[in-house]
Amino acid sequence: MIATISKALPGFFAASDxxxxxxxxxxxxxxxxxxxxxxxESAHSAVLYTDGVCVSYGDHQAxxxxxxAFDKGSITALIGPSGCGKSTYLRCLNLMNRxxxxxxxxxxxxxxxxxxxxxxxxxxxLRRSIxxxxxxxxxxxxxxxxxxxxxxxxxxxxxxxVLDQLIxxxxxxxxxxxxxxxxxxxxxxxxSGGQQQRLCIARALxxxxxxxxxxxxxxxxxxISTLAIEELMHGIAEGRAIIIVTHNMEQATRVSDRTxxxxxxxxxxxxxxxxxxNAPKSERLNDYLSGRFS
Length: 294
Ligand SMILES: Nc1ncnc2c1ncn2[C@@H]1O[C@H](COP(=O)(O)OP(=O)(O)OP(=O)(O)O)[C@@H](O)[C@H]1O
Description:
Elements: H1 2-8, H2 36-45, E1 48-57, E2 60-66, E3 69-70, E4 75-79, H3 86-92, E5 103-111, E6 114-115, H4 123-129, E7 130-133, H5 144-154, H6 160-173, H7 177-180, H8 193-205, E8 211-215, H9 223-236, E9 241-245, H10 249-255, E10 258-263, E11 266-272, H11 273-278, H12 283-289
Parallel strand pairs: 4-9, 4-10, 7-8, 8-9
Antiparallel strand pairs: 1-2, 1-3, 1-5, 5-6, 10-11
Helix pairs in contact: 5-6, 5-8, 6-8, 8-9
The structure holds adenosine-5'-triphosphate.
Adenosine-5'-triphosphate binds at residues 57, 62, 80, 82-88, 100.
């Protein structure tokens, strides 16, 4: 397994190759004197990391100097009050912000060791490797089967038996197979909201991404559907990095092993989720967790 991953990522270490990474991911903090060493170590083991990322919408700076790293096998929660830059940061990671007129992204974003924040990056290929699931389930108005087959076909997969297998694997990965295996050729729009969101996760899985970005994936769902999504998170994190924006602190503690706290466009504190919630170091994070502001 280790050999396979290392081979797939030449010049890069898999999370499981590094002595420091025993299960939980390594993630860097802000690049000040106390975390500089950690940042350098983290970058070497990460499949994706950012170095000094700043984002502006026109002349409004929404995110400042953000450096974080994400390992395969890790789930990182991005938390913080509304408008502090969590989604802006998430959207940088596969350059979705480039679709927003007037938005500029500065700094470096390394995926598999190369800076992707360059004008000539292949966005189509990038978003195949770094998939995204949005707040509102957004299935295509097509059948369940076609929802998942669409992107692999666009990427050249035409073999029906390969597609059939991919669809089953992806639906199983998203814990949806048993519920839909007898209606694969029915409209995806007839599924419940929670099922639609799991279909969107299956759709992302079908491209076998290294990273999945989830922007408040449960905010439109009922508690049972939310639990279903949370339960499948650890399964989908196997062999890839998961980064989730959430306003639900219980959800962050249930699903993530790393957490990063954002406040007013800055990443203030990051660490293991247990440390962040049980022993926050910064006063702002402590105030946020105590409900002094939301
Ligand atoms: N498309 C956009 N155009 C202009 N400004 C934007 C855009 N998206 C976000 N912003 C601004 O950037 C800042 C950060 O917003 P962002 O959505 O990243 O915060 P957030 O922490 O994800 O908030 P929430 O938790 O409410 O979703 C805010 O001031 C917001 O108004």
